[in-house]
């Protein structure tokens, strides 16, 4: 449930610079990584002039036992158009936080991790023509499946690793359709992976159910009074009717109006946490200690951090500064953004479509 700022396209030709490994193959991909192979990242041209960016982390806890291979988590961010490379990685489950400090609870302790800037046009991903943005969840699923086929060539251990698709918010729609697309590709012999599961968190696979839940939830915690609750319920019912009629754009507009009404009448309740008001950020709580695993990851950034001004040490500053320097395959004048207006609005006709049947 997010709006989206920022987008700037990247040119076709990327400089052939890397840290450690560089590889260009027949699938029009560019891959770089750390010398020890614990991290790989790169671009895959999933369609002509449409390029997806990915980043792989190998868990130091990965087992080499053939009978019990370690799992791999493919993280899918929401939005639509939120950057998994920046947000899912550094704000949520990766080895380092937004200040590039070690994270205690990184999922890398339990699994290999793959982050995507998905769909094309999100984060470091880009298109060379605005007509190439995806307009349906199924198109992003096709692109992500093509990406997986390319990643397997770069990370051969992925073939024997149980693959889990994990998503939040609008990413739940990505995971539902991608799970179906991957299963079909496996059955057709086009993709050699073991799809072990799909995990959905606060997922947007049923916009109608989400919309209808707002009023009762906010009434129960006294964030709306009865009069506001009655009006919110009427507006939610309008969204339901428009969804049933296949009026996708109109239903999204009505849904946005409902959120605006709720914000006005509730004292700007945070749409993600009714205990908070908009602007209160629980992610700002600082953790000064980290595990030895995360400290190993932090050392890889120390050379870059020492040359950075502290004022730029934010998610946006880091992604366009220290992280961009580390990756080395991003063009100098390219600007990363947390979300993309262009990607968001390209999916306007799919935003309110349910994916319940795909997820069940």
UniProtKB/TrEMBL annotation:
Organism phylogeny: Eukaryota, Viridiplantae, Streptophyta, Embryophyta, Tracheophyta
An example Gene Ontology molecular-function term: serine-type carboxypeptidase activity
GO annotation, biological process: proteolysis
Keywords of the record, alphabetical order, are:
Carboxypeptidase, Glycoprotein, Hydrolase, Protease, Signal
Pfam families attached to this UniProt entry: Peptidase_S10
Q: Which family does it belong to?
A: Belongs to the peptidase S10 family.
Enzyme type, top EC level: hydrolase
EC number, as in UniProt: 3.4.16.-
What is the protein's given name?
A: Carboxypeptidase
Per the UniProt entry, the signal peptide is 1-24
- Coiled-coil stretches noted in the UniProt entry, renumbered to this chain: none
């Amino acid at each position: 449930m997010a709006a989206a700022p920022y987008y700037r396209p990247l040119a076709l030709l990327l400089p052939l610079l890397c840290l450690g490994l560089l590889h260009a193959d027949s699938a029009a991909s560019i891959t770089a990584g750390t010398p020890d192979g614990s991290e790989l990242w790169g671009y895959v041209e999933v369609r002509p002039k449409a390029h997806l960016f990915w980043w792989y982390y190998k868990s130091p806890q990965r087992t080499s036992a053939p009978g019990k291979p370690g799992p791999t988590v493919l993280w899918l961010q929401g939005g639509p158009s939120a950057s998994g490379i920046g947000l899912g990685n550094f704000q949520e489950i990766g080895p380092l936080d937004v200040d590039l400090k070690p994270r205690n609870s990184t999922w890398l302790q339990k699994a290999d991790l793959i982050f995507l800037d998905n769909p094309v046009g999100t984060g470091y991903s880009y298109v060379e023509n605005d007509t190439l943005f995806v307009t349906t969840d199924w198109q992003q699923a096709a692109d992500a499946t093509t990406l997986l086929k390319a990643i397997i060539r770069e990370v051969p251990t992925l073939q024997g690793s149980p693959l889990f698709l994990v998503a939040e918010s609008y990413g739940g729609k990505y995971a539902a359709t991608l799970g179906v697309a991957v299963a079909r590709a496996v059955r057709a012999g086009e993709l050699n992976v073991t799809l072990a599961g799909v995990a959905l968190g606060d997922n947007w696979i049923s916009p109608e159910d989400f919309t209808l839940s707002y009023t009762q939830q906010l009434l129960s915690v006294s964030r709306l009074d009865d009069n506001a609750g009655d009006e919110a319920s009427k507006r939610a019912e309008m969204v339901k009717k428009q969804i049933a009629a296949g009026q996708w754009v109109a239903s999204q507009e009505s849904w946005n109006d409902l959120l605006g009404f709720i914000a006005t009448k509730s004292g700007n309740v945070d749409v993600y946490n009714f205990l908070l008001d908009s602007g209160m950020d629980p992610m700002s709580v600082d953790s000064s200690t980290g595990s030895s695993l995360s400290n190993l990851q932090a050392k890889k950034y120390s050379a870059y951090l020492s040359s950075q001004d502290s004022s730029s040490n934010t998610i946006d500053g880091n992604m366009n500064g220290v992280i961009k320097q580390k990756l080395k395959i991003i063009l100098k004048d390219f600007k990363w953004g947390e979300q993309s207006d262009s990607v968001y609005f390209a999916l306007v006709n799919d935003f309110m479509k349910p994916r319940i049947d795909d997820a069940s």
